[in-house]
C-alpha cells in the first residue's frame, strides 16, 4: 500500500509540475518588450502573440527561436532601415524608445521579413530598438544621422502665430497656425518633410511626416492649423508630465534640419 501511495504521489507531483510550467511560461511582449506570463502583458496589457510557444495537452517544448545581429542603414529620405538575423520565421515586432520616455513605440503591427523601415525618428537622436518574435528578442542602439539642409538658402523659416500657451488656464485647447517658408521656385521639388517637437525634457515621440512633400512654384509658404492639446498629451505620455519652459518645433527635409521656432508653455 505504501508503494502504491508513493507512486500516486509521484504522478500527482509530476502533473502539478507540468501544469505549473504551462502556467508560468514566459513570453516577450512585442509592444513594450516586457517579459510576461498569461495571455496579456502585465506591463502594457498587450495580447500574447499567436506565435509564442504554449504548452499543448500532450507535451510542451522549449522555443529555439533566436534573434541577433541587428543592423541599421540610413536612407536618403531620412528613414532608417533595420535588419536582423533570426532562426524563426516570424512574425517579427520592432519597437523603439529613448531613455527618457515612459513607453515604446512601433510603426507596424508586425513584419514577415527580417527587415523594417522606421520613419518617425528625429535626426541626431539616439534610440534603443528591440526586435522580437514573441519568444525571443534582441536590442541595439542607433543614433540617427543629422545634418543641415543646404539646397535652399533664402526665405527659409518656420513661424507660429502664437508663442505662449498657458495650459493651466484653459490653454490646452488653444490652436495655432504653423507656417513653413521657402524661396519661390521655378519648378516643383519634392522631399520627405518631418516636424519634430523638442521639450525641456527631450524630444517627444510624436513626429509628423509627409513623405511626398511638394514645394510648388510661385508659392512662398505653406501653413497648417494645429491644436496644442495633441502635442501636449503626447509629451505627458512620454515623460509623465508637461513641464513649463521653452519648446521648439523643428522642420526637416530628407532628414536634414531646415528651420525651427520656439514657444513657451506654462505646464500643469
Describe the structure in brief.
The chain is mainly beta.
Plain-language structure description:
This protein is mainly β. The chain contains 2 helices and 17 strands. It has 2 domains: 83 residues, Immunoglobulins (Immunoglobulin-like); 110 residues, Sandwich (Immunoglobulin-like), CATH 2.60.40.1930. 13% of the residues lie in helices and 39% in strands. The strands form 5 sheets. Strands 10, 12, 13, 14, 16 and 17 form a 6-stranded mixed β-sheet that branches. A 3-stranded antiparallel β-sheet has the order 3-4-6, with no helix packed on it. Strands 5-7-8 form a 3-stranded antiparallel β-sheet, with no helix packed on it. The relative contact order is 0.14.
SSE topology sketch:
Blueprint: H1 2-23, E1 27-28, E2 35-36, E3 67-74, E4 80-86, E5 93-97, E6 115-118, E7 126-132, E8 137-143, E9 157-160, E10 164-166, E11 175-181, E12 189-199, E13 202-203, E14 208-215, E15 221-227, H2 228-239, E16 245-253, E17 256-266
Parallel strand pairs: 10-17
Antiparallel strand pairs: 1-2, 3-4, 4-6, 5-7, 7-8, 9-11, 11-15, 12-13, 12-14, 12-16, 16-17
Amino acid at each position: 500500500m505504501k508503494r502504491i501511495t508513493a507512486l500516486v504521489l509521484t504522478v500527482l507531483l509530476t502533473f502539478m509540475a507540468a501544469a505549473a510550467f504551462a502556467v508560468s511560461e514566459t513570453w516577450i511582449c512585442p509592444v513594450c518588450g516586457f517579459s510576461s506570463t498569461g495571455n496579456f502583458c502585465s506591463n502594457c496589457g498587450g495580447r500574447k502573440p499567436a506565435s509564442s510557444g504554449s504548452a499543448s495537452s500532450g507535451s510542451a517544448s522549449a522555443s529555439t527561436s533566436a534573434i541577433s545581429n541587428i543592423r541599421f542603414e540610413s536612407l536618403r529620405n531620412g528613414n532608417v532601415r533595420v535588419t536582423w538575423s533570426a532562426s524563426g520565421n516570424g512574425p517579427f515586432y520592432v519597437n523603439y524608445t529613448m531613455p527618457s520616455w515612459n513607453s515604446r513605440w512601433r510603426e507596424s503591427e508586425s513584419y514577415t521579413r527580417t527587415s523594417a523601415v522606421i520613419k518617425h525618428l528625429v535626426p541626431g537622436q539616439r534610440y534603443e530598438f528591440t526586435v522580437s518574435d514573441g519568444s525571443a528578442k534582441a536590442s541595439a542602439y542607433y543614433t540617427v544621422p543629422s545634418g543641415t539642409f543646404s539646397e535652399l538658402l533664402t526665405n527659409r523659416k518656420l513661424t507660429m502665430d502664437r508663442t505662449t500657451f498657458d495650459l493651466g488656464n484653459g490653454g490646452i485647447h488653444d490652436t495655432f497656425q504653423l507656417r513653413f517658408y521657402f524661396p519661390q521656385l521655378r519648378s516643383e521639388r519634392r522631399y520627405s518633410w518631418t516636424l519634430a517637437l523638442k521639450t525641456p525634457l527631450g524630444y517627444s515621440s510624436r513626429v509628423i511626416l509627409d513623405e511626398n512633400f511638394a514645394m510648388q512654384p510661385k508659392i512662398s509658404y505653406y501653413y497648417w492649423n494645429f491644436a496644442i492639446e495633441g502635442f501636449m498629451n503626447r509629451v505627458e505620455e512620454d515623460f509623465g508630465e508637461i513641464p513649463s519652459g521653452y519648446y521648439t518645433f523643428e522642420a526637416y527635409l530628407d532628414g536634414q534640419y531646415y528651420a525651427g521656432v520656439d514657444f513657451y508653455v506654462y505646464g500643469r
